[in-house]
TrEMBL record:
Protein name as catalogued: Fe(3+)-siderophore ABC transporter permease
Stretches that traverse the bilayer: 71-89, 101-120, 126-145, 157-180, 200-219, 245-271, 283-304, 316-333
Organism: Brachybacterium saurashtrense
SUPFAM superfamilies, sorted: ABC transporter involved in vitamin B12 uptake, BtuC (SSF81345)
Membrane topology: Multi-pass membrane protein
Length: 345
């Protein structure tokens, strides 16, 4: 227990060590990503290029102008998805409660496609459309999932899958509605890509995550109590409905910001919190650990796509989708379900 004046914080050494290791892995992966591309840059040149002191001006432009926004977009989006997944899984009390599985990411994509296809929106307008789409989707899911004054995690997941299917159909209609150019741009965005990322993509997700994460951390203890059930949480003094709305608002905002920055990315929000829970062996929502693991996973996926021995660019969203499908199958195996379904129903 760490006490500073009237404030006391419970510090778990295992949590601190693993979080530091994950952050170090994310930074190492980011440094490695700075060296990869059509213009190879030696790792030793990267610090000088970042500071503008490298002898080769081409390396400076490549690192600072092209690769740094891409890397920061990946780190910010991965962290946002990791925290969003942890919040949704805590709310649903189910390992499948991630924004890409229960439709929030698809709904956010609908808002973005409206801006891209119908209005030719720039990155800022696309980001606002993404947040609006995610918010409307969340409102519909929460409204339809309520039954008898309460809401179970299973209802939330099933309703979210249904709303996500409707949003996916709307996305297909928008692609048909658009011109060849706007449909091609929208289709590329839907694949989830880190190519051609600019500061207009990186800045919103970094700033938004930095603002929302402290609020989520402040609510994490109440979220842990709500995992015991609404009735128990009420008896322990938690204002369940208000807390649920705040947690959903945080999770939706983070998922929407990540989607606006890099497009719909599968697997990260689903797997990052689960992997961290296994490492930390903690029942609390792994928010900081989830952010760190999400950043690591997305950076490693981006590195893998750039190092593949192919002549075409592979969108990172397709890579995470393949890995995520395999992980989901593994998670749903009967032996896994019987072993891990005891805590969350």
């Amino acid at each position: 227990m760490l006490r500073i004046g009237a404030v006391s914080v419970l510090v778990r050494p295992r949590t601190v060590v693993i979080t530091i290791v994950l952050i170090a892995l994310a930074l190492i992966s980011a440094a490695a990503a700075m060296t990869v591309g059509s213009l190879p840059v030696p790792l030793g040149t990267v610090p000088g290029a970042l500071l503008g002191g490298a002898e080769d001006p081409t390396a400076v432009r490549a690192v600072r102008g092209v690769r740094l926004p891409r890397v920061l977009s990946a780190l910010g989006a991965g962290a946002a998805l990791g925290v969003s997944g942890a919040l949704f899984q805590s709310l649903a009390r189910n390992a499948l409660g991630s924004p890409d599985v229960i439709g929030f990411t698809t709904g956010a994509a609908t808002g973005a496609l409206v801006q891209i296809v119908l209005f030719g929106g720039q990155p800022t307008q696309v980001a606002l459309g993404t947040i609006a789409g995610g918010t409307v989707t969340a409102a519909l899911v929460l409204l339809l999932a309520r039954s008898g004054g309460g809401m179970s995690g299973r209802q939330m997941i099933l309703v979210g899958i249904g709303i996500g299917a409707i949003a996916s159909a709307l996305n297909g209609l928008l692609l048909v509605r658009g011109t060849i150019d706007t449909s091609a741009q929208a289709n590329l965005w839907l694949s989830g890509s880190l190519d051609a990322r600019r500061w207009s993509h990186a800045a919103p997700v970094l700033v938004g995550t930095a603002l929302v994460l402290p609020l989520a951390l402040a609510l994490s203890r109440r979220a842990s109590l709500m995992e015991l059930g609404d009735d128990v949480a009420e008896q322990l003094g938690v204002r369940v409905e208000r807390t649920r709305l705040l947690l959903v608002a945080c999770a939706v905002a983070l998922a929407a910001l990540a989607t606006a920055a890099v497009g719909p990315i599968a697997f990260i929000a689903l797997a990052a919190p689960q992997l961290v829970r296994r490492l930390l062996r903690s029942a609390a929502p792994p928010l900081v650990g989830g952010a760190s693991m999400g950043a690591v996973l997305l950076m490693l996926a981006d590195l893998a796509t750039q190092l593949l021995p192919v002549t075409f660019s592979v969108p990172v969203g397709r890579m995470t989708g393949v890995i995520g499908g395999l992980y989901l199958v593994w998670l749903l195996l009967p032996s896994r379900g019987s072993a891990e379904g005891k805590g969350w129903q």
